[in-house]
Design brief:
Elements lengths: L1 E2 L18 E3 L1 E5 L8 E5 L2 E7 L7 E5 L2 E6 L2 E8 L2 E9 L7 E4 L8 E5 L2 E5 L6 E2 L8 E7 L2 E6 L3 E5 L6 E8 L9 E5 L2 E5 L4 E6 L8 E7 L9 E2 L8 E4 L5 E4 L6 E2 L3 H8 L8 E7 L2 E8 L2 E6 L5 E3 L10 E7 L2 E6 L4 E6 L4 E2 L2 E2 L2 E4 L9 E3 L2 E6 L17 E7 L10 E4 L11 E3 L3 E2 L5 E6 L6 E7 L2 E3 L2
Antiparallel strand pairs: 1-43, 2-35, 3-4, 4-43, 5-32, 6-7, 7-8, 8-9, 10-11, 11-12, 12-13, 14-15, 15-16, 16-17, 18-19, 19-20, 20-21, 22-23, 23-24, 24-25, 26-27, 27-28, 28-29, 30-31, 31-32, 33-34, 35-42, 36-41, 36-44, 37-40, 37-43, 38-39, 38-42
Organism: Rhizobium tubonense
Protein name: Bacteriophage P22, Gp10, DNA-stabilising
């Protein structure tokens, strides 16, 4: 018997035959000592529709005092909930279709909320359309953040302006400038007690020094690692503990504190990012479910999700798409709200949901190659260790009541796969269901790669597997 080994972290390789397994819409979670496997591969959290709005796309969120402000295509809306029913109020025009940033100060009794778009800065009002930030001392900003009572506006030329404390007034002399490397500013984020000025070739760390004139912040450190694009960073959201960003070298980095970022991406993801010619198409979205902290790095044709606790990666792709529809996030309404790249849907990330709205959430796991190179191996039988008997008493039949999986295999290193075979995963409480493939042919000299796939709407736990192998000559 030979073990069928499933990966803990996705690694497709640069070409078929180089990889060491893939996880698509599923992730590895460690089991306690004594379990029949060290890890289980579970399906990723699904998307439950919070509300379907009338406006497409998502540009950014801000949540305050029970109100969720949503920037969409040329529009700003407010969503709240009463008696379990979510409703949307159309606040008015917010010109543009690009991503935005929000910030809120501590003014009493009513804080100021500011939004920066590609068309300038705006003051957000709860019941009326946003109004332009008309202070003539503020140049066109790129982003806005809030730290220690001050709004901080990043300016493309490398300057950043600070507001009056808990106010929206701007003094023309209250600015600092990132000058360690040329290239200007792409973003200014408040992370912990630090202001991070992120440019295309460096990140400067500034702290509140209580300066009496000019900006209250002073530079404390510089890292020679730039930001790939303005929105290739996330992690400042309330409820998230680490900053994740895509660097100017096409790697993905993590900062938990201090000044030194840690590279967390592997060579496969680095290649995908490198291939994106327009770096403004890159973004990072963060969320937390069941104490799993996720950071999803997306480009125009890929989405990879990193789990902070384990350091493992998995791929995420929406139905009939090559990347995830989710973009932007905020902790709100007792969970994490996710936007949609194209539709007007607003979602809640939910680990108990196995769909994205009405679309299936297709889980795929590709095993590591089982090889006897250069010999061929006949495989009379293969068994798959899966948590079975998870069908539902009521629901859609058969995809919830009598669920199945699809199993296929490749003998050319994963370049091509045969026709999938359907196997039952067991109705409710059918815990003795066997998932077996008989007469599975002969593996080639490059070994056998198995593909396990489930789209049915039930819990799935993939633990392991084994196969009989009879060695053949070359």
């Amino acid at each position: 018997m030979t073990d069928i080994v499933w990966p803990n972290s996705t690694s497709p390789g640069a070409r078929p035959g180089e990889g060491s397994g893939r996880l698509i819409n599923c992730y590895a979670e460690a089991l306690e000592s004594g379990a029949r496997a060290s890890f289980v591969r579970r399906r990723v959290p699904g998307l439950a529709r919070l509300i379907a709005t009338a406006f497409p796309g998502c540009r950014g969120f801000h949540f305050y005092n029970g109100d969720l402000y949503v920037a969409q295509s040329n529009r700003l809306s407010r969503i709240n909930v009463a008696a379990g029913v979510y409703s949307q109020v159309n606040l008015g025009a917010l010109a543009g279709i690009g991503r935005v940033t929000f910030a809120r100060n501590n003014k009493v009794p009513t804080p100021d909320i500011v939004c920066v778009t590609e068309n300038g800065a705006f003051i957000v009002n709860r019941t009326t359309a946003p109004t332009s930030f008309t202070d003539p001392d503020l140049p066109q900003p790129v982003t806005v953040a809030f730290l220690d009572g001050y709004f901080v506006f990043a300016i493309r030329d490398g300057r950043f302006f600070t507001s009056g404390i808990n106010d929206i007034t701007i003094n023309a002399l209250d600015f600092g400038k990132a000058e360690s490397h040329s290239g200007g500013l792409l973003n200014a984020v408040a992370f912990g007690e630090q202001l991070m000025l992120m440019g295309p070739s460096s990140v400067e760390f500034w702290q509140n020094a209580g300066n009496a004139t000019g900006t209250p912040f002073s530079r404390s450190s510089v890292v020679a690692r730039g930001l790939a694009s303005t929105f290739a960073v996330a992690g400042t959201e309330y409820g998230f503990s680490s900053l994740i960003f895509i660097g100017d070298d096409n790697g993905v980095y993590r900062i938990d504190g201090g000044y030194q970022p840690t590279k967390i991406s592997n060579a496969d993801l680095d290649r995908l990012i490198t291939a994106v010619a327009d770096k403004t198409l890159l973004d990072v979205t963060v969320a937390v479910t069941e104490a799993h902290a996720w950071a999803t790095v997306s480009g125009p044709n890929f989405s990879w999700t990193y789990e902070l606790a384990t350091g493992f990666w998995h791929e995420r792709a929406s139905y009939l798409d090559d990347h995830w529809r989710g973009v932007c996030s905020v902790q709100a309404f007792g969970g994490w709200v996710i936007g949609d790249r194209t539709t007007g849907d607003i979602w809640l990330l939910n680990p108990d949901i196995q769909t994205e709205g009405t679309n299936p959430l297709v889980m795929k796991a590709y095993s590591l190659p089982s090889i006897g190179f250069p010999n061929r191996v006949a495989i009379p039988r293969a068994d798959f260790d899966i948590i079975v008997g998870q069908g539902k008493v009521t629901g859609l039949d058969p995809i919830e009541v009598d669920p199945v999986c699809l199993i296929s295999w490749s003998d050319d290193g994963g370049a091509t796969f045969g026709t999938p075979l359907k196997r039952s995963l067991g109705r409710l409480a059918k815990y003795m269901t066997n998932v077996v493939i008989n007469r599975a042919g002969s593996a080639g000299r490059y070994g056998r790669v198995w593909c396990f796939e489930v789209s049915d709407r039930i819990y799935v736990g993939l633990l392991g597997g084994s196969m009989d192998g009879i060695l053949r000559s070359k």
